[in-house]
């Protein structure tokens, strides 16, 4: 048995559209970039979508577009992929870590409130593993909000897509994500001025019209036409991909829910998730060998898994701080293969392997 952690779902016009982009000779910018941006804005019900080179540059672009600068404090969760915090450090801003909820593994309004100071410029709710933070209460603080939806594309909160609650939403189109362009990402927003500024920053500080007349010190965050062609093929099958991802998650729940020593990530009734990765927290009383040894044991069975994110407090380049729930999750969470082509029989085998290594 060999079950990889992730397999990209390439079952449509990907090869055809990429070949068309190559034959057109428009391999940098081109029609597929425009088509993908139009599809994203239309289907996520937002005025503007700008595709970029990856999810991290999407965050960087959002911070710059909203005026985050050196010395500004920005609140981020202690348990999540650290792209947002890393970008903040690289632009001279200060990531301030707030703890996450024990059940949902998402940042909470209560933990945010405890971290707000007169230097707080923004909040970055990260929708971890496809769950969605309680956006209505987070927005009540009246502080800039940049939603990191890298793992939660098409997840909804109270019937509305994540990424559309904040001032800017950011997403990833990495190979493991719901739709992929190999590497890639995008930002969405409804503010015309912010969108125009981000478009200018994305392309070397050049305005839409005119050559070499830089109006600001920008970056090259652009996505290529070939990558966008891949994305255009991906979105044609997105409803099937979402359906299959939900099947995979629901099947894991059948086998793992209410099993001793295994705690699934929980979702509020307001959340309609598109799960990026099915993840559980392991109790050391049932798995005394520890999470890392469990990962090794599953690998011996031929099942590839991943540990949860290392909590911010365990990363040496951040100042010392306390996020106890994040630390617990960082030590105990394991995530499983979650992709459309994963069969129910494969999921049953994965769960059987996990249950077999309990004490």
Automatic annotation (TrEMBL):
Keywords, alphabetical:
Aminotransferase, Transferase
Q: Which Pfam families match?
A: DegT_DnrJ_EryC1
Under the heading InterPro entries, the entry gives: DegT/StrS_aminotransferase, PyrdxlP-dep_Trfase, PyrdxlP-dep_Trfase_major, PyrdxlP-dep_Trfase_small
Single biological process term from Gene Ontology: polysaccharide biosynthetic process
Q: Which GO terms describe its molecular function?
A: pyridoxal phosphate binding; transaminase activity
Please name the Gene3D superfamilies in this protein's record: Aspartate Aminotransferase, domain 1, Type I PLP-dependent aspartate aminotransferase-like (Major domain)
Q: Does the keyword Transferase apply?
A: yes
Q: Coiled coil located at which positions? A: none
Name of the protein in question: Putative DegT/DnrJ/EryC1/StrS aminotransferase family protein
């Amino acid at each position: 048995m060999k079950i990889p952690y992730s397999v990209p779902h390439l079952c449509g016009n990907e090869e055809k559209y990429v070949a068309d982009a190559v034959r057109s000779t428009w391999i940098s910018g081109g029609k597929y970039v425009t088509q993908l941006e139009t599809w994203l804005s239309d289907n996520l019900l937002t005025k503007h979508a700008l595709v970029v080179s990856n999810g991290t540059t999407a965050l960087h672009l959002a911070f710059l577009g909203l005026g985050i600068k050196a010395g500004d404090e920005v609140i981020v969760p202690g348990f999540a992929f650290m792209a947002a915090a890393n970008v903040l450090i690289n632009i001279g801003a200060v990531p301030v870590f707030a703890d996450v909820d024990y059940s949902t593994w998402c940042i909470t309004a209560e933990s945010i409130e405890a971290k707000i100071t007169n230097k707080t410029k923004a909040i970055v709710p990260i929708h971890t593993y496809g769950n969605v933070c309680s956006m209505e209460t987070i927005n009540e603080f009246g502080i800039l909000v940049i939603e990191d939806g890298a793992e939660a594309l098409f997840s909804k909160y109270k019937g509305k897509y994540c990424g559309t609650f904040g001032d800017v939403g950011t997403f990833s189109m990495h190979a493991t994500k719901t739709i992929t362009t190999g590497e890639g990402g995008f930002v969405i927003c409804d503010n015309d001025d912010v969108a125009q500024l981000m478009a200018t920053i994305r392309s070397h500080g050049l305005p839409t019209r005119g050559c070499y007349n830089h109006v600001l010190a920008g970056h090259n965050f652009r996505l290529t036409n070939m990558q966008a062609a891949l994305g255009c093929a991906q979105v044609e099958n997105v409803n099937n991909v979402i359906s299959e991802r939900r099947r995979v998650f629901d099947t894991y729940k059948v086998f793992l829910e209410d099993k001793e020593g295994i705690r699934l990530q929980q979702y509020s009734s307001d959340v309609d998730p598109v799960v990026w990765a099915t993840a559980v927290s392991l109790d050391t009383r049932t798995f005394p060998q520890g999470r890392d040894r469990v990962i090794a044991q599953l690998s011996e069975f031929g099942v590839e898994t991943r540990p949860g994110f290392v909590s911010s407090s365990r990363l040496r380049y951040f100042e010392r701080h306390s996020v106890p729930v994040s630390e617990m999750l960082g030590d105990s969470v394991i995530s499983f293969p979650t992709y459309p082509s994963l069969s129910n029989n494969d999921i049953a085998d994965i769960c059987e392997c996990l249950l077999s290594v309990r004490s």
